[in-house]
Amino acid sequence: MTSSERLSVVASRELAGRRTVFAGIGLPTLAASLAHLTVAPRLEIVYESGVCGAHPSHLPETIADAVLITGAEAVLSMPALFGYVLQGGHIDVGFLGAAQIDKWGNLNTSVIGDWDAPKVRLPGSGGAVEVMANSREVFVVMRRHDPRSFTEKLDFCTTPGPDRALEEGVRPLGTGVTRVITELGILAREGVGEELKLVAVHPGVTVDQVRENTGWDLAVADTVETVQPPSAEELRLLREDVDPDRVYLR
């Protein structure tokens, strides 16, 4: 089992009971597609390209992949998608990735290092700011869990969560990041005013290990659960039905 497979399976379980998800390309697509086959059969997947209720024959390689169009419930213009669907409060979960995250769920997908002379320049926001502000809640999947990715201070804040937005006098519709799924475990918070805390670890991972790999003094839940490992059936579905061509699985 690879890290990508573990992250995808664990993230898919978090979508149980949800109805609409705004999914980014990559691990969020894997998680949403697997959830549709397991814990959330009525899940409607929405993509930033305007595709709603996608039923692709195979995984898209980009949000503009033509495979998303065939069989979709609808294809909307950008003003309709962002103005009516997102800002209208019709998305249960926004699924995002990031290079950096802080304890309040603010995200960096712009640069690593100084803005004027960055070590790495990243893709930027895309629709992440709108997703953060208007989804009822946001899940984040992080491939890396280390102090550089889970940092006290972001190198750049691309996507502010509601706590930071409120400091600027803006009241977002949603509660911001409520779940972060990583290679070490799961961090969670209920909403505005709470920082992320450790609520679950993968088998073989200790609480101290997670804290050592987090760049702030990580809060820990009174009871830390152990994540149930992916089942043989979940892995089979992921490998054979969701991503047999290994588009995103590594």
Automatic annotation (TrEMBL):
One of its GO terms (molecular function) is transferase activity. It comes from the Bacteria. Signal peptide: none annotated. The keyword Transferase applies. InterPro entries: CoA_trans_fam_I, NagB/RpiA_transferase-like. SUPFAM superfamilies: NagB/RpiA/CoA transferase-like. Keywords: Transferase. Belongs to the 3-oxoacid CoA-transferase subunit B family. This is 3-oxoadipate--succinyl-CoA transferase. It comes from Streptomyces ochraceiscleroticus.
